[in-house]
Specification:
single chain; 110 residues; elongated; 84% helix
Amino acid sequence: AGLKGAAAVAMVVLGLAGFASASSNAHVQQAVTAANAAVTAGKAGHAAELVKHAEEALTHATTADKEVHDKELDDAVSALHEAVEKGKAGHTAEATHAVETAVAHIAHLK
C-alpha cells in the first residue's frame, strides 16, 4: 500500500495544484459570468446592458490578470476594453463580437 498510497497522495497534490491555475481563479470565473451576460445582452440588441456587463467582466479580468499574469488574460482585457468602447458608441454587434473574443481567450487559460 506504500507505493500506491504515495502515488495517490501525489495525484491529489498535483490535482490541488491545478486548482491554483488561472482558469480556476475566482475573478476569471466572475469575468466569464459577466461576459456571457454581456453577449446575451448584445445578441438581444441591448447596448447599455452589454456595456454594464462588459465593464463588470473587465474589472474581474483585470484583477485576475494582476494575480496570475497570463497572455490570454491580457488579450481578454484588451477585447473587453474594445467591447466597452464599441458598446458605448452604440455598435452593439461589434461590441458583442469583442466580448465573444474575450471569452475565447479566457477559455484558452490553463
